[in-house]
Amino acid sequence: MDDIGRVIVAAGHLALEPRGPRWAHASLCVLDAVFSINARYERHTVPTCHRYAAWAGISVPLSGSAELPVPDEQPLQDFLTHIETHGEAAFSSEVLENRQRTWANRDAPLKAEAARQYAEILVSHGIANLADANALLADVDKLKAVERDLAGVAGHGSGARLAYLWMLLGDDSRIKPDRTVLRWLQTVLQRTVTAAQALGLIAEAAARLSCTPWELDHAIWENQRKSDQRIRGRLCQAPVRQ
Q: What is the pTM of this model?
């Protein structure tokens, strides 16, 4: 059996589901993409996004795809202005209540700075909202230029953050080849898998499974999250240091 076949067999144990409610504002997509890297998603990233939404007066932070765009979608420029007005440090501590940095080093840039730079670059390319972002995703030449600029922001890494941003903004053909997805693929295939290889494996497997890459990626992520929770639960009951 080839690698794709192994992935398809393993995917048979996953819960493949259509995409549910998602962030209805480009600003929340930017925050999620930046703050989810090397962070516990449900514990840190999601609350960070909701804290900003509440502070900014965003009444409908999440919405089903059929209901988008929401009538009061926040322009990305407003988000950028909020960070610039406060400064990254105050915005992190007072608004987001999350002072995480782009990598594990006290001298590394704050994730709020990376979020500001993301917003700044997107706005400079004429991206104000989700509709603009989806138009960008359909314009190959412009997309390459935007990706080149975004790749220069601290914390870019292997490119998982950028791929995840496009997912959040509505591109169901993208995946986030982060450590969670790579770990699942490596377990299934019993070998090391690079981020670039993961992109191809998930895309091809999704095509054969008649689902979107997003659906397969999300099912993998949910499976691993629940597995990690079970492991943490057992460790918490055992008299050992985690």
A: 0.84
